[in-house]
């Protein structure tokens, strides 16, 4: 059979949908140009929020290397910063899925075009297209798996998603540089002439009878994205909107009643917490600081220290967040003062008694320790912490990712990490 045989996918006549065309693909491409750029930036922001260059315990990627040029000390203001950036990252990633699939469908014939490369520019375009398709599917798939199923993809999510993002975005930039002028011209000319013709190399020479217009197909794609937005965004917005987040793992109503009745990502049972080990007789907080100075504090002794309150949410890398909860406990900077840091508290390494799950140890920067809202919380919403929320004590820091708000704290070491 010849390449122009309509029975072969290498023939333009094999692909008969009348929807394919330069204008249709260009509109989808321009939407992705904006959306994927925001996704990439908010993804990098999320990695910076983990403070991976602060201490090895926070570094979930095998080697920052040249890719760590953007890292910076994560701020504590505004206190809802990570709630917004990561909520936007996850929600936008899900909302863009119909657009990505429609875009991939619109350019499928180009994957089968022969010869594979007619020129250097064409070869670069084909390579970028293959990396773009493969990278896009990989990034969106691993992201959705992490959000919906607590990640089941083989290998660690952090390095795979991180390095995959760089490969995908590099291919995306190369493809955008080659195709954005064409896309803008196609949209501009269509706006001026309002015709259905001249759809370029993406149009089929043997179109089937249309069942929907190109504009109708775009409305359908946009409607699917809007539906995903409605079924996802409530997990970050909170309030009554949480009940609309049917596709979100922490959507729906709060998982309980009372002061401790708000979202939980890691339960005490999952973390392997022994109730006797965290009971008032056995549990002690060990705080170490300057020149090895160490104090051991029971929960009763902590409650006799000056207590402070702060209204802060918990925001997770999976995109969900709680409403502001009213936490009460001892300021981290006051604990630093107990072990020799009366002014300018340093970084701190926080260790938990948990036996299972990531981030049993986490480091916080000096600016996070110094913030007066950063607490070793003992109570929430006027009641003692429940075991699932970190009893006998947990860290709560403004704008920090949830995994850095360590629960079931056993030891805090202040000083250079």
From TrEMBL:
Keyword match Cell inner membrane: no
Residue runs in coiled coils: none
Signal peptide (UniProt feature, chain positions): none
Keywords (A to Z) from UniProt: Membrane, Transmembrane, Transmembrane helix
Residue ranges of domain Oxidoreductase molybdopterin-binding in the record: 279-414
Ranges for region Disordered: 189-210
Transmembrane intervals: 21-50, 88-108, 129-148, 160-178, 216-234
UniProt keyword Lipoprotein present: no
Pfam families: Oxidored_molyb
Organism domain of life: Bacteria
Entries under InterPro entries matching the protein: Mopterin_OxRdtase_euk, OxRdtase_Mopterin-bd_dom, OxRdtase_Mopterin-bd_sf
PANTHER family (UniProt xref): BLL0505 PROTEIN (PTHR43032:SF2), PROTEIN-METHIONINE-SULFOXIDE REDUCTASE (PTHR43032)
Protein known as: Molybdopterin-dependent oxidoreductase
Organism: Streptomyces sp. 900105755
Top-level taxonomy: Bacteria, Bacillati, Actinomycetota, Actinomycetes, Kitasatosporales
């Amino acid at each position: 059979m010849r390449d122009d045989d309509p029975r072969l996918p290498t023939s333009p006549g094999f692909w008969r949908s009348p929807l394919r065309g330069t204008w249709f693909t260009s509109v989808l491409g321009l939407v992705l140009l904006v959306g994927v750029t925001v996704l990439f930036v908010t993804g990098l922001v999320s990695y910076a929020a983990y403070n991976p260059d602060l201490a090895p315990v926070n570094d979930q990627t095998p080697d920052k290397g040249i890719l760590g040029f953007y890292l910076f000390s994560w701020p504590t203001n505004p206190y809802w910063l990570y709630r917004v950036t990561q909520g936007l990252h996850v929600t936008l990633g899900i909302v863009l899925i119909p657009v990505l699939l429609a875009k991939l469908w619109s350019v499928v014939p180009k994957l089968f075009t022969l010869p594979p490369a007619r020129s250097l520019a064409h070869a670069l375009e084909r390579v970028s297209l293959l990396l773009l398709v493969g990278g896009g599917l990989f990034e969106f798939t691993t992201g959705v798996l992490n959000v919906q199923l607590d990640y089941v993809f083989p290998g660690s999510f952090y390095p795979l998603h991180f390095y995959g993002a760089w490969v995908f975005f590099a291919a995306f930039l190369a493809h955008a540089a080659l195709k954005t002028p064409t896309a803008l011209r196609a949209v501009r000319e269509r706006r001026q002439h309002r015709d259905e013709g001249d759809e370029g190399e993406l149009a089929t020479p043997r179109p089937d009878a249309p069942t929907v217009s190109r504009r109708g197909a775009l409305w359908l794609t946009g409607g699917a994205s809007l539906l995903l937005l409605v079924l996802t965004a409530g997990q970050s917005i909170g309030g009554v909107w949480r009940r609309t987040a049917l596709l979100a793992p922490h959507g729906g109503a709060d998982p309980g009643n009372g002061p401790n009745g708000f979202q939980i990502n890691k339960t005490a049972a999952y973390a392997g917490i022994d109730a006797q080990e965290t009971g008032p007789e056995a549990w002690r907080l060990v705080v170490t600081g300057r020149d090895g100075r160490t104090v051991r504090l029971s929960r009763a002794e902590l409650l006799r220290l000056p207590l402070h309150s702060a209204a802060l949410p918990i925001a997770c890398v999976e995109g969900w967040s709680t409403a502001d909860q009213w936490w009460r406990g001892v300021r981290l900077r006051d604990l630093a003062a107990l072990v020799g840091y009366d002014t300018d508290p340093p970084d701190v390494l926080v260790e938990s008694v948990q036996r299972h799950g990531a981030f049993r140890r986490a480091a916080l920067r000096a600016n996070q320790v110094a913030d007066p809202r950063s607490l070793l919380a003992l109570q929430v919403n006027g009641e003692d912490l429940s075991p699932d929320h970190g009893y006998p004590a947990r860290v709560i820091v403004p704008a920090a990712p949830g995994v850095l708000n360590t629960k079931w704290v056993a030891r805090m070491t202040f000083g250079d990490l």
